[in-house]
Amino acid sequence: MHRYVYHELAAGVTWLAGALIGWTAAVVVRGSVPVGGDTVLKVIAYTAGCLAVLTLLHVSGIRWVSGIRDLRGAVPLPSDARLPRPAPFHVLLSPPYVLLFLAPVLLTYFWPDDSLIAFLLPMDWLARAAAAVWFERRTGRRVWRGYHHQEPWRLTYSPTTK
After folding, report:
1. Is residue 36 in a domain?
2. Are 18 and 101 in contact (CB under 8 A)?
3. Distance CA 32, CA 83 (A)
4. Which of 22, 27, 46, 72 places its Cα 20 to 30 Å from the Cα of 136?
5. Is 148 among the domain residues?
């Protein structure tokens, strides 16, 4: 069981780190930057804009887009449930996160000219994390994932004082 915010944040940051390392490796091995300085600024601007729009969409409550509906549908944790210690980085060594790291490394290494796609893909995870932080602060609940082993995607919540 781990916090939903940590799960989404770890996925997004892992993908971004892999994309940065793959792009850097491509630049070092090929000996030249595949894009100019103004293109890098455009990628940063597009990425920040995409993150802002996706965060607003996730917080909005729109039926097919919003992540808040999933958070509102979380069920309370039983009173005898033990919460894990706050150590979110141990999950980064699990096989799914290793694959989340290696996929953008390969994508940006072999196709550095199309690396904008690799930098835009994790924005949904980061926007979901930002929406979850907003929801947790607004409602006073911590949202957890993985309490039910048969349904690990099912969300539960606990009060923030617990």
Report:
1. no
2. yes
3. 49
4. 46
5. yes
**Separation CA 108–CA 154 (nearest Å):** 33
pTM: 0.81
Report, in angstroms and rounded to the nearest whole number, the Rg of the chain calculated over CA atoms: 18
Q: Which domain holds residue 91?
A: 2-30+51-159
Residue pair 137/56 in contact by the 8 Å Cβ criterion: no
pLDDT tens-digit series, residues 14-47: 888 888 888 888 888 877 666 666 777 887 888 8
d(CA 2, CA 115): 31
Among residues 49, 23, 42, which one has the least CA distance to residue 110?
Answer: 23
Q: What is the distance between the alpha carbons of residues 46 and 116, in angstroms, rounded to a whole number?
A: 9
Residue 108 included in any domain: yes
Site of tokens 């793959």: 22
